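New to this. Comment on this protein:
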Amino acid sequence: MQVTFLGTGGAVPTTRRNTSGLLLRRDGERFLFDCGEGTQRQMMRFSTGFTVSHVFLTHLHGDHVLGLPGLCQTLDFNDREDPLAIHTPQGTRRTVENLVGVTGARPGYPVRVSDAQPGEVVLQGDEYEVRAFATDHRTQSVGYVLVEDDRKGRFDREHAEELGVPEGPKFSRLHRGETVELDDGTVVEPEQVVGPPRPGRRVVYTGDTRPTGATVEAATDADLLVHEATFADDRAERAGQTGHSTARQAAELANRAGAERLALTHISSRYAGDASELDREAREVADCEAFVAEDGEAIDVPYPE
């Protein structure tokens, strides 16, 4: 799994930071979270490719959606045939449908727009799901969490051999949770040679929001929490008034959730030349690795130990 930050800026783009966009790769699938103006150019610039199957919109402020018409048109020019699914906060589906066809021409491939309600599984995939959770902005908004299923426990090959299990199909059957019988009649149970299930990965993307308990719940033990940090702490009042968070607040929330890593995005143009203040504030508080994400930065999300 890999995350590429396509746009880490706030409402006003800068020469260093584009408006919001994040691409997540998982086992050959590509998911796009938010699609601010210029996102398709960022996808070309950072070589992510256009083969996204799902777009997850957190809310309909321009810096999160104005890249959608251009992206859909480019996909059409590239003779796309596969359907595109767009997930958007409850009550905004019609607006997104109109946005996709804003030029008067509909894409030549199927586009399905569906509401994403907090607490709902909006995508059920192969050994993973994407759920929406409630956020607190100045409009209808949600965040998204991708959660993988638990993985099989580790297979203790050495102990299996000590029990007399021959290498081959019986190894696989035990790892699948099946009981096997040896040639001498001995029965070996999977619990004897397979450890407890191991957790999959969890990635959380908040979009724009004040700190919320729902985010803490969604980000519990997250391997990566991508949380907005529009302002430094000296503008905490302004952050609250506008439905945003400070870097310190994001770090405090990551601590409450027990997240492994915190990436700060949606950086205000106020910090266009230097976001080190936000980086410092988060690092001073965070119990985990914390950093201000940069456009084009790509990070791997490994399985937890």
Observations:
- The chain has eleven helices and 16 strands.
- The radius of gyration is 22 Å.
- The first strand starts at residue 2 and ends at 7.
